[in-house]
Design goal:
Anaerobic Ribonucleotide-triphosphate Reductase Large Chain; about 15% strand; RNR_alpha_hel; about 35% helix; disulfide bond; alpha/beta; 7-stranded mixed sheet; 5-stranded antiparallel sheet; oxidoreductase; cobalamin; b-12 dependent (class ii) ribonucleotide reductase, Chain A, Domain 2; disordered C terminus
């Protein structure tokens, strides 16, 4: 029996790996990594190098194994985990696979130990009165088991500020549970002169604290003095929301929130990193949400009201320069007010931009024409089939009634169907790179399953989350670079053609996709590998097997590290200019300029520079290569259906791109795949029709010319220029963890 219960990878092992394995950096890979995931190391006065990031991440994960905390840990168990940590290190260091962006940023940090929630990319919450329970946040005026309208909004606010995205449901069944708004509330925000943010806050509507106290009796109000914490922001908002309802208010008509202690704009945020946004966005949010509630007095809150409140929270979180707010609002498929709410341009530009909106459907739903029309004009709504998620894993495994009966919604990118309070829990393998680096794919996917399983043993802040995570142990093992892998390995795309078929329910003729059966068999084998690995590891840990195991995430930023196609998506173009924005003070700019990259001021944002990277897609010259600009909408639907049928028992994140001439196919294809597609969204293909577009298709000759102008390795030049000493808390601008821009960086 061993007394050692903490696993640390030795410097000798790391040095050995660095000598024998070369990371598969994509053309944007190292730059994206350095500005997005490399944490500051105070004692070394610089940011991490890739080897240090991977060491931190792997150690943070392997030490979540609950057996390491037990006295009966055996030498065999310990040695097995050490070997697994080494294998994981090799897998991730070589960029044959990566954990989610959240894990790359948080795993192995002190922040992880305080806030285990931060290891998960995204969450889901149902908007209806709920109890806070035994959570880290419980407003003092509430009992733990008391239902409160504020709870789902508090959950959302808290998770967004931790860097996670949040899906939320405002479907009719939830809205029926919302109580009538009883009270109009007179809201006052106070600030003391000692605050460095005093002048800005007064301009935003706050009132001088001393002047107000001289004329008012604070004991006749609901009063809360916000501490300078994330929890303080959340509880301040909860105080104001709950004062509108008699069941959570002791009769106060006045709410007074004192923001004096909140740090001013630009001050450092410890733990998570970055700089503070100051109290001004918070003040604006308090008044805006209070106005929504005051206008609803005497009525129940509607789906639009609740989405507005969620969007106003998201807007406030975005104002902090280190976090990205990702929200998905899920409404009813016949709720026209919800479906059309973004047509109010004033409110759209003010706050309604903060969520992607989808509608919940079932397999009996037929009204796809209005949805398709809205998508053609606005790119929304997406669709989420909760019935399929509740009763199916992979479609090939058939109807399994109630297999996932608690499902109520999805994360913002749509790859994981979730129960109330549940997170997505992601890891992705790049099968093409893994194969090229000599990995047995079954071994790589088994390591992925075990990694995600350990994340379910994190220290979660909310009771609702702890309960559902323990019940479901849901994991999401994903693969990315799917198009690259299939074309390179099998010589063609997975959809090899279509054949006429008859829809058994309608009698109409449809075009049924023909799939390469070699790909079907390989994907099926990999799925079974993940399920087996989870079953064996669950038995060793003494916990339930995971309710579901596999997914396809959109994989925006993480795919850029390895230079592979994003999730199931086709490359944007065979050759393109990828533009990435940097703060003008970023020390990377000097290295990029020295290497010959074109750099110019950003035309949209001050103090920001736009750098152009020439990029060639994997297999760009293959006659069977297809890009998002050339592949048909029918093949994209069929590819998503293939992955939902043979690989993903959760869901498949997919943003299908379409040309104007294909818009009439949207509704029929949605209907054709109604028994397969759990969630999908569509966007018109944009071929860089505005200045400094993030992606601009180019031809091969332009690519070769631009590529020839770039010399030297940016990482090497940067190291020479800075001796690896770079500035703290400078980050990439406008990068996301998802292809469609929905999910957060970190």
């Amino acid at each position: 029996m061993t007394t050692i219960n903490q696993i640390t990878l030795s410097d000798d092992f790391v040095d050995e790996v660095k000598q024998t394995i070369k990371p598969h950096w994509g053309e944007l890979g190292w730059v994206t990594y350095k500005r997005t995931y490399a944490r500051w190391i105070p004692e070394l006065d610089r940011t991490e190098n890739w080897s240090e990031t991977v060491k931190r991440v792997v150690e943070g994960n392997i030490n979540l194994d609950p057996r390491l905390k037990k006295d009966d840990l055996t030498d065999e168990q310990y040695d097995g985990l050490v070997k697994e940590a080494k294998d994981l290190y090799k897998l991730v260091y070589g960029l044959a696979a990566t954990p989610s962006g959240r894990n790359l940023w948080i795993s192995g940090t002190q922040y992880q130990h305080r806030n285990g929630d931060a290891l998960n990319n995204c969450w889901f919450i149902a908007i209806r009165p709920q109890k806070y329970g035994n959570s880290h946040i419980v407003p003092s005026y509430l009992q733990k088991d008391q239902l409160a309208v504020s709870m789902p909004f508090s959950f959302m606010f808290d998770q967004l500020m931790k860097g996670g995205g949040v899906g939320f449901s405002v479907v009719p069944s939830n809205m029926k549970l919302m109580p009538v708004v009883d009270n109009a509330v007179n809201l006052t925000v106070l600030i003391g002169k000692e605050s460095a943010a005093y002048d800005d806050s007064i301009a935003a509507g706050a009132i001088d604290r001393d002047d107000w106290l001289a004329e008012h009796d604070i004991s006749t109000t609901r009063h809360y003095e916000l501490p300078d914490t994330r929890e303080g922001w959340v509880i301040g908002n909860a105080n104001m929301i709950d004062a509108h309802f008699n069941s959570t208010n002791d009769g106060f008509k006045d709410v007074v929130l004192d923001i004096t202690n909140i740090r001013a704009k630009g001050e450092k945020i410890k733990g998570f990193g970055g700089t503070a946004s100051g109290p001004v966005p918070l003040i604006q949010m308090f008044f805006d949400i209070n106005e929504v509630l005051n206008e609803a007095v005497g009525k129940k809150l509607t789906s639009v009201d609740c989405t507005d409140m969620g969007n106003l929270i998201g807007k406030t979180v975005v104002a902090g320069n280190v976090r990205r707010s990702a929200e998905l609002a899920l409404g009813g498929s016949t709720d026209d007010d919800f479906i059309t709410m973004k047509q109010d341009k004033k409110k759209l530009y003010h706050h309604r931009w903060a969520s992607n909106n989808s509608v919940a459907v079932d397999s009996e739903f037929k009204r796809y024409a209005p949805i398709a029309d809205s998508i053609t004009h606005n790119g929304e709504p997406g669709i989420v089939n909760l019935e399929l998620s509740k009763n199916y894993g992979r479609c090939i495994d058939g109807y399994q009634p109630g297999i996932d009966d608690g499902v109520e919604g999805t994360n913002p990118c749509g790859e994981i169907s979730l129960s109330n309070g549940e997170p997505c829990n992601l890891f992705e393998v790049f099968p093409l790179i893994a194969s090229q680096q000599g990995w047995n794919l079954e071994e790589a996917f088994a390591l992925a399953a075990r990694y995600t399983k350990r994340v379910t043993f994190s220290n979660y802040d909310w009771e609702v989350s702890r309960n559902v995570i323990q019940k479901n142990r849901r994991i999401g093992v994903s693969m990315s670079g799917i198009q690259d892998w299939i074309l390179t390995t099998f010589g063609n795309r997975v959809v090899t053609g279509f054949e006429p078929n008859t829809d058994p329910e309608t009698g109409e003729t449809i075009q049924k996709p023909i799939y390469d059966q070699r790909v079907v068999k390989k994907v099926d084998d990999l799925y079974r590998t993940v399920v087996k690995a989870d079953k064996e590891y669950s038995k060793a840990l003494g916990c339930k097997p995971s309710i579901k195991h596999t997914t396809v995430k959109p994989s925006g930023t993480v795919a850029k590290l390895a230079g592979v196609s994003e999730g199931m998506h086709f490359h944007y173009a065979g050759y393109l200019i990828q533009r990435i924005r940097f703060q003008d003070s970023d020390p990377l700019l000097k290295a990029l300029k020295a290497c010959g990259y074109k750099i110019e001021p950003d035309v949209y944002t001050k103090h920001t520079m736009c750098v152009e990277f020439p990029v060639k897609a994997v297999n760009a010259d293959d006659p069977n290569f297809a890009s998002a600009g050339s592949v048909s909408i029918a093949e994209q639907f069929a590819t998503q259906a293939f992955l939902q049928t043979y690989w993903s028992d959760n869901a498949v994140s997919c943003t299908i791109t379409f040309q104007p001439s294909e818009s009439k196919q949207i509704a029929p294809l949605m209907y054709q795949y109604r028994h397969i597609t759990k969630s999908t969204s569509l966007l018109p293909y944009s071929g860089a029709d505005f200045k400094q577009a993030p992606k601009e298709p180019i031809d091969k000759k332009v690519y070769q010319k631009r590529e020839s102008e770039v010399d030297d390795d940016v990482a090497e030049v940067f190291a020479e220029q800075n001796d690896n000493h770079d500035k703290k808390d400078i980050e990439l601008v406008d990068q996301t963890d998802c292809a469609g821009g929905a999910c957060p960086i970190r």
